[in-house]
Amino acid sequence: MIPKSHPRYESLMKRERIIEGFKKGIVAHAGLIAHGRGETFDYLIGERSENFALRAEEAAVARLFLAENPVISVNGNVTALAAPDVIQFARALNTKIEVNLFYRTEERIRKIVNEFEKLGASILGAEPDARIPNLEHARALCTREGIYSADVVLVPLEDGDRTKALKDMGKFVITIDLNPLSRTAQTADITIVDELTRAIKNMIKFADGMNEERARRVLEEYDNRDILAQSLNHIKNRLEMLAYHFSNSSGLKT
Ligand code: PTJ
Questions:
Q1: What class is the 51-232 domain?
Q2: What's the gap in Å between 252 CA and the centre of ligand 1?
Q3: By alpha-carbon position, which residue is closest to atom 17 of ligand 1?
Q4: Most CB contacts within 10 A, which of 19, 72, 207, 211?
Q5: Are 14 and 34 contacting, i.e. CB atoms less than 8 angstroms apart?
Q6: What is the DSSP letter of 22?
Q7: Which atom of ligand 1 lies at the shortest distance from residue 27's CA?
Q8: Rounded CA gap, 43 and 190, in Å?
Q9: pLDDT tens string for the chain (254 positions)?
């Protein structure tokens, strides 16, 4: 049991959720590693939703709002960390949810579908009837009703190959990825460099005030290359500032 007073309470609770998800058979082995990589980047960013993240989150909501067949793709980590918020967000914007696994096993698919059903949401993906072209193995499997025919897909914590394959299908791809250097972050149309649970909560708020006029204006002003550059500059400046404090004072506040 982690006491609420622990200075790293939020981060430790997320870690607990990932471990619980792993024990339940929802999170893949590699999901533990992916989470650790995310934690590292979040530490560098400062564990807050910075302006570059908020702008990308608003643009993502705008694009999903204007989409004809928007789909949120969920995997083991996303389910363990944020299933209730994903459901709330999907309802707010009327999007479908589809389970799509990198390390696909039928057992994990079933467990993830059950997890969402327990929370009152039925999701696509248990019975795939289409394939993402140019992707080998079972990770290409998807549904015609969902990802295959979607015009906009939100793929949080996604593998670079699949992001590229979705782009090659002509889809508008939005990702949430704490690593601005990942291939997915570099390939997506909108890259949210933020922690998944913070990002989804912010996006639920942005969805509340969205309308067509606002959505179009937000997207006109949005430039993903600039957002990626801002995220890297933020990390660089923050490290410079911390290094300065290290060398000029005895105390360090991260
Ligand atoms: O459940 P499966 O089988 O679909 O597998 C899911 C994982 C995440 C294991 C799989 O897609 C994978 O291996 O992903 P990668 O290639 O490790 O990419 C995950 C990316 O998400 C990395 O760039 C991490 O930095 C980032 N990441 C990890 N945790 C978070 C995160 N980004 C935002 N929020 C997080 N909580």
A1: alpha beta
A2: 30
A3: 34
A4: 72
A5: no
A6: H
A7: 1
A8: 22
A9: 777 877 788 888 999 999 999 999 999 999 999 999 999 999 999 999 999 999 999 999 999 999 999 999 999 999 999 999 999 999 999 999 999 999 999 999 999 999 999 999 999 999 999 999 999 888 899 999 999 999 999 999 999 999 999 999 999 999 999 999 999 999 999 999 999 999 999 999 999 989 999 999 999 999 999 999 999 999 999 999 999 988 887 655 55
